[in-house]
Amino acid sequence: MNGNRKNIYLILGLIIIFYGLSFPASVYDWTGNLYEMIEDSILYNDAGLLLKASFFYITWNVFTFMMIYSGSMLMAMAVSTDKNSPYYQLSFALIVLLNVFIYNMIYSEHESFLLHMVISAAFLLLQLFIPKQPFSVLPQLIILFLILVSFSWLDLSPGLTRADLGSDDFAASLKVADSYLSEYKILNNLSLSFFFVFSILSLIFTVLIYLFSKQILTIKKVQKQEKELKETRDALLETNVYKEIHTLVHDLKTPLVTVEGLISLLELKVTQDEKASTYFNKINAATAKMKEMISEILSEDIKQEIGVEDFIGYVTSHISFDHVQIDFNLTIDEHVSPIKVNKIRFARALSNVIENAMLSLGDQKGYIHLEVEGIDNGVLFRVEDNGPGIEKRNMNKIWEEGFSTKNSSGVGMPFVKQVVENHQGAIRVSSIPNEKTTVEIFLPY
Questions:
Q1: Could you give the CA distance from residue 248 to residue 297 in angstroms, rounded to a whole number?
Q2: Which H/E stretch holds residue 221?
Q3: Which one of 126, 138, 336, 341 has the lowest number of neighbouring Cβ atoms within 10 Å?
Q4: Mind listing the pLDDT tens digit for each residue in 86-116?
Q5: Are 210 and 311 in the same domain?
Q6: What are the φ/ψ torsions at residue 376 (nearest 5 degrees)?
Q7: Separation CA 12–CA 417 (nearest Å)
């Protein structure tokens, strides 16, 4: 994936640079008008035409090199996406200077390598203060634009001609016209003024983006900390609740043992007849069942084999289907094998799914289909309802503790997922709003 992205950066960078290098040739008539404007300013002694020609030159120059620099930036990102990396910085500077050389060769110009080295250094320096964020390329391009405008005006300063600045044909022609009209006063004042204005703007913009990015990072850190705090609080609450439940259930063992002992004594003392024996057998079976349930609640690891029909019968026996508006349909594959589960917890999980479906239907007429089928090396439980469904934006939130759209506790689905995963199973939820919701639970054998 990273290789594909780097190839995209490289190809896109080459296309943009090619467009930048070919731009002067594609606007040949426009550049011809620029030369006419310079000649007319001298011919008619018109300083206004000189100013107009200067602005046209800056626009043309900035657009051309904006393409070259932004393309060079993308090509450098093909080498390294880390702006702090010396590989990225060196690649960017070398690609820029190489394209300046190509530009000079194509158009027989004299663009200053020193000027573009300074521009590259200024851009790379300010770029370091832009934290990597989504859409961070846009502020980088704005900074690049401001720097290019700033130094393009500096290119027109007559006082810097000796430093090999402004040696291209357009800049030289503008300086010649200015020497005739104002003895270099117009371009000296204009170039230095705009250089300082746009340099300051680039610095201010960089500072603002830096502060804004820091604020965004701070907000994200706070949100992350709040999420971690909520998860810790929920985990602590859940732990305390489980501790209390385990304590209460464990305490049930004592009176249950007492009941067993008293029943045994009564069996010895009470005159045995057929009816009394039946009652005692039922009581013993009930106490044994309670002991089994207590053991399963206290230990999640206790799993027993049970037939699917018996298990579904146990689940549905704890759910009231008296709602006259709901059509409940049950389908069980005849060839499905028995499952090995913690019956109490897995039954609670499946009944939670069914109850959620009932809750979503409310007082509306609808259906709930429970289908059980054997697939591959496991059993698939599918619960489908035609309720209002789950909105796409809430699909991932249903697994969060406390999330609910029905003013309930919001612990149902997280509990279901935890139980299913403890059985090495998997759960999947799909929904079409206002049509249907399907919950599929796969349990391996």
A1: 11
A2: helix 185-269
A3: 138
A4: 999 999 999 999 999 999 899 888 888 888 9
A5: no
A6: 50, -120
A7: 45
Tokens at 425, concatenated: 């199973």
Bridge partners, residue 431, by sequence: 437
Domain edge (last residue) among 226, 251, 285: 226
Among 226, 247, 275, the domain boundary falls at: 226
Q: What is the rounded distance in angstroms from the CA atom of residue 67 to the CA atom of residue 62?
A: 9
Residues 6+ apart with CB under 8 A from 365: 325, 326
Question: What residue numbers bound the domain in which 89 lies?
Answer: 2-226
Are 352 and 440 found together in one domain? yes
d(CA 272, CA 73) in angstroms, rounded, equals: 97
Q: How many CA atoms lie within 13 A of 81 on its CB side?
A: 13
Which helix (H) or strand (E) segment holds residue 364: the answer is none
Q: Are residues 70 and 203 in the same domain?
A: yes
Average pLDDT, the chain: 82
1 vs 232, which has greater pLDDT?
A: 232
Task: Indicate the number of domains in the chain.
Answer: 2
End-to-end CA distance of the chain: 37
- CA atoms of 237 and 241, how far apart (whole Å): 6
User: Does residue 43 share a domain with residue 155?
Assistant: yes
199 and 321: one domain? no
Answer yes or no: do 78 and 182 share one domain.
yes
Structural domain contains residue 275 = no
pLDDT: which is higher, 310 or 406: 310
- Out of 70-84, 144-158, 302-316, 409-423, which region has the weakest mean confidence (pLDDT)? 409-423
- In total, the chain counts a number of residues equal to 445
Residue 73 CB-density burial (10 A; 0-12 exposed, 13-18 middle, 19+ buried): buried
Measured between alpha carbons, how far is 357 from 413 in angstroms, rounded to an integer?
A: 12
The pTM score is 0.53
Q: 147-184 burial string, b = 16+ CB within 10 Å, else e?
A: bbbbbbbbbbbbebbeeebbbbebbebbbebbeebeeb
- Give the tokens for residue 216: 């965004």
- The C-alpha atoms of residue 270 and residue 272 are separated, in whole angstroms, by 6
- b/e per residue, 202-227, with b = 16+ CB within 10 A? bbebbeebbeebeeeeeeeeeeeeee
Beta strands, E only, 167-308: 304-306
CATH number of 411's domain: 3.30.565.10
338-379 pLDDT, tens per residue?
999 888 788 888 988 998 888 888 778 889 999 999 988 899
